[in-house]
Amino acid sequence: MTIAAFTLYPYRIAFRVPFNTSRGMQRHRRGVIVAIRLDDGTPGYGEAVALPSFGTANDDEIVHRLEEFTPSLRGESIGQARAILGQELSDSRESPVRFALDTALLDAESRRAGVSLARHLTPAPATSVPVNATISQSNAEAAEKAASYAVLAGYPAIKMKVGMTDDGEAEAERVRAVRREIGPDTELRLDVNGSWQLEQAVAVAGRLEEFDIAYLEQPLPQTELEATAELRRRISIPIAVDEDVTDRRAVEQVVSHGAADVIILKPAIVGGLTVARDLIALAEENDIRVVVTTALEAGVGITAALHLAATLKPPLPACGLATGALLEHDLLVQSPVFIDGRMQVPDGPGLGVELMESVLSVK
Question: Is the pTM of this model over 0.90?
Answer without folding.
Answer: yes
